[in-house]
Amino acid sequence: MTPRSADPGPEPGASDHLARRLGTGDAVVIGLGSMIGAGVFTVFGPAAAAAGTGLLLGLALAAVVAYCNAVASAQLAAAYPTSGGTYVYGRERLGHWWGFAAGWGFVVGKTASCAAMALTFAAYAVPGPEWARRAAAIAAVAALAALNYHGVTRTALATRVLVATSLTALAAVVIAIFAGDGTDDLGGWSALGDGGVHGVLQAAGLLFFAFAGYARIATLGEEVRDPRRTIPRAIPLALFLAVAIYAVVGVAVLAALGPDRLAGATAPLTAAVEAAGAGALTPAVRAGAALAALGALLALIAGIGRTALAMARNRDLPGRLAAVHPRHRVPHRAEIAVAVAVSALVMVADLREVIGFSSFGVLVYYAIANAAAFTQPASDRRWPRWLNVLGVAGCLILAVTLPWQSVLGGVAVFAVGLIGRKIVLARRG
Predict the structure, then answer these.
(1) Neighbouring C-beta atoms of residue 172, cutoff 10 Å
(2) Which of 141, 200, 291, 374 is the most exposed place for a label (fewest CB within 10 A)?
């Protein structure tokens, strides 16, 4: 397929398109809000179970792969500043089937991420029986979908507040740990290899779940002012800030709990604060965790809705999802559909299981993004091609080293999507 020329994007006044209202600061906050809630309060436990202290190596490896993906996404988004992210880039640079695979992986993987964030919110915010937590998680999905429905500027403002609150809570946790009653001996440099190569790779794949929030910036490309300048600046900046925060928090919780206790903790930051003798901070940590999860969920729903909008415009999803609200300028039907799907998953999902499943879908998505960026001409390139090669290899290696249940489930879901599209196209003739 011959790539089509880059579309500069629709004009804000067009009746079936979204309005450009977000600046660089808004874009960074939306991406950071997705990453902060997605990782700090959920993935350190599973990563420690996979690699022990070696999760720190996994964190570094995940950050390198995420950087490759970030610059590929930034370069592509500057050339194709419209909603849809790698779904659009794959179609433009590689062909329709590659675009569909990317979009399908994103929608399915990030729907699982939404369920994980809703369940994280409920686990920290709602004491009591499981049915009450699941009911609270569904209520949170409905409330944030309603907020997104009323406009992306409200989404950016709410995310800014949630990020500030979450960072305050994380700072309190780190200070309490290092000023507390003592920390565990992490075993020195040799302990980094205790999990073996496979354990470190698996930890990196799980921790990658924490870094995928910068995709929200690219999927909001149709709503960013001056996207050719804003997106390449916002994506690496949001990623850099998230990496710094994760590194500090990861070292702190390992020091407080040690790898064995961290691996078994369902609420690692709460457990770390209590181990440091600062149990009085537990309510603040729970509040920070709940708000961080809400911030991630808010941005995730917005990103999935925009990708679903792009897929519906090309009839890869039902055409009714392509509608844009005449007043609020958001893909309202797509966001309602996302909220319904996430609510259904919340009723049956297990928090730790959906993290691996989500990582598999999103790693495939970014492998396609790197391949698409590799094909861009010199006039559109901002970073060297070897980063794209490293990104493809890194994504595929991390994907296949995830827990086997996640890999098997991911392959099955991709097969369903691709076979389903083949059947639909055959019926259309």
Answers:
(1) 17
(2) 374
- For 415, half-sphere exposure in the C-beta direction (CA atoms, 13 angstrom radius) is 6
Indicate the class that CATH gives domain 24-428.
Answer: mainly alpha
Structural domain boundaries of the chain? 24-428
Which of 217-226, 285-294, 297-306, 389-398 is modeled with the greatest confidence? 389-398
Cα torsion at 349, 213, 89, 67 (round to 10°)? -120
Q: What is the pTM of this model?
A: 0.79
Amino acid at site 202: Q
Phi, psi of 41 (to 5 degrees): -100, 5
Give the amino acid at 199.
Answer: G
Query: Which among 137, 99, 298, 97 is positioned nearest to 216, based on CA atoms?
Result: 298
- Beta-bridge mates of residue 22: 224
Q: What is the pLDDT of residues 219-259, one digit of tens each?
A: 565 666 776 777 777 878 888 888 888 899 999 999 888 88
Cβ density class 78-108: b for 16+ within 10 Å, e for less:
bbbbbbbbbbbbbbbbbeeebbbbbbbbbbb
Which residues, 6+ apart, have CB-to-CB distance to 226 below 8 Å? none
Task: With cut-offs at 50, 70 and 90, classify the pLDDT of residue 274.
Answer: confident
Is the separation of the CB atoms in 53 and 259 below 8 Å?
A: yes
Q: CB 214: neighbour CB atoms within 10 A? A: 28
